[in-house]
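Step 1: inspect the first sequence and its tokens.
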Amino acid sequence: MTVAVVGGGIVGMATAYFLRQRDVEVVVLERSNVGAGSTERAVGGIREQFSTPVNVGLSQASMEVWDTFEEEFGVDIEHRRIGYMFLAREEGTAEELRETAEMQRDLGVDIEVLDPAGAREHADVHDGNYRLATYGRRDGIADPHLALQGFSTAAQEAGTEVRTHTAVTDVVRDGARVAGVETDDGRVDAEYVVNAAGPWAGRVAAMAGLDLPISPQRRQVGVVAPEKPVPEDTPLTFDMDTGVYFLPDREGDALVGGHFTDPDERDPDRYPTDYDIDWAVEALERAADCAEYFGPEAGIRQGWSGLYAVTPDHHPIIEETLPGFVNAVGFSGHGFMHSPATGQLVTEMIVDGEPRSVDISALGTDRFEGVGAGREEKNVL
């Protein structure tokens, strides 16, 4: 059996790796270079703190891989468990965090609900602005480039064929079933095609006759020189009500991000990959209102932007939508952290006939007709 994986980012390469562990022949088709899409622009957050059980499940299954990655792949991905801290200014937001924490505890998440003074023990936030916080000590960050290197090298050493600079131009059908793809370098026959094309996933799905509600939306990040150095053990801190987040970078610097306007939908082939000055000014103002590290003398050193492939409910689509056509798309900013679980699930669907490691029954396209997984209100990293 041959599987054609469309997309050479972290989801595609993780899928290729796990398929090869089950002796499936794999061809990865990447329109540019491996990791040249969203993966190279990811910040690298890994967290269990999600507001729906299915996303918690994807995180927990993925963490089993992240925790042993260096041992398994021989690559140090600089995985640091600095934690995530979510802050609530408004009472409604605080109540949502309380309810979500209860659900997370039931699923085995190591979560603390903190008062403002407790939040300040983890980061120098303006505690007078907040009612409540949640802190997940198992959450953290890793380097997406190093993780991609690990999956890519292991997949290729196991026999995966990777074709870069090879664009998929059509999906081939044999009656009702998908039978391969056409590329700008010829046809590739395959019993299964996996759509792992990130921001281009909607276009690939359309080649198979599918209309998926995936919107490529631009997100920006800045490297900031703060007034007060941010300790390296400071958690990734997210203000739920203003939308700004920050996390420690190198030598006391911080990464600051957030999306503060209406959806910024972009053509994935043509969008600015730098940051906008107006956005940077607003991000720094919001960061200064969140924590003491950022004040009038804080400045942005550099920055970048990338694309999230966003679905209406901020959950991915992971399913065999057509016979032989598997979608692993629409991660809404969570593709890096959930890539190990996704690769395993896609492999289970193809080899075993059904996903087994996580209950993903809520992640099919039928939910857009009214049956859903719930909604992640914030698609922070």
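Step 2: inspect the second sequence and its tokens, then contrast the two.
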Amino acid sequence: MTKISRRAQSLGTENAFVVLAEVNALARQGKDIISFCIGQPDFPAPLHVQEAAIRAIREGKHGYTPSAGIDPLREAAARYMAGMRGGLPIRPEDVVIGAGAKPFIAYAILSTTDHGAGDEVIYPNPGFPIYESQIIACGAQPVPVHLREGRDFAFDPAELEKLITPRTKLLILNYPHNPTGGLLSRKELEAIAAILQKHPQVWIYADEIYSRLCYAGEFFSIAQLPGMYERTIISDGASKTWAMTGWRIGFASNPVLAPVLTRWITNTDSCASQISQWAAVDAINGPQDAAEMMKKSFFDRRNLIIRLLNGTPGVSCRTPGGAFYAWPNVTKACRMIGAADSEEFRKRLLHEAGVALLADIHFGARVPGEGQHVRFSYAASNEAIEKGVARMADFIRRNTKKAA
């Protein structure tokens, strides 16, 4: 009998899309669902970006491009990433364009670890689920570093230091962070850099896709610290900043690994969509009014949802420093309604109240001692936020009475 590989059997998924399929099935049955499960801007791409794509189509820009991307986009992305990161010496030849930022997670792991050699990759937990999935699929060993609510969902650098071994080859950092919205402060990054100075074999994958959605001052990258630039793979892209998730344009930079990342693209996607690449040139070089408007809207929504969540029975929520996610603690709410954990809470909330969230277990194993959490993506209208949180509050009140 033919069988699928162990690698394929172990491959994880992104549960936001699994829950979305469940939400869509309920909606087709006529159920009224308010969804907070997908992390993408609820705005269209800026008009000048749309027009640039149409222009590229009409000008016949339909074929393959170089695997590393078209020169105008590599040049624009180099200027953009350098400008966002204190003037780092990023050259166009250091930049590689991908079909979204997500593929660079796998390319980075594949470029810094060897399959089955016992190489270790440290990654944040909770975290974007594709980190752990790709570490395992690429034949490396996943080593979680736990994010703590008491640290506003950063990790203790001392915990990181204990995890590093001679087998550690890559450290994944994500800030602003999915799913918590947490940040790593400059002080924390300096402490991390000081630890890494003792371990020159460790590369850094800096997932900075939410760099333009930082609400606590200017964004600061670990690559800006002494000795970190050459060993940091900086990953960014067009999806979150310019509402271009479906256009699939990401960019990564490293002066040593750019040619290697390019070869991975040649072996997989050949190149990113030429039409999307030309649109991304205009996204970076054109007016930034729409991007700034989106950021302000997310900031206002963040303040609204945090206020409402902290007024909900049995719920407490830290104020996230960036992105568009809230990570409320629902430990008390679970006890109040008799739910065993956050996943039961999520399922009951969806089916009984029509509110779609993700549970903490969709982002890795629960951190010991940290309680139960769920994720809201507040890339939703003020009306949806108000209505959705109100439904959740009513759901908790009703079920608390039943439990009593």
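Step 3: confirm your contrast with the notes below.
The domain at 63-285 is CATH 3.40.640.10 (Aspartate Aminotransferase; domain 2). The CA atoms of residues 74 and 167 lie 34 Å apart.
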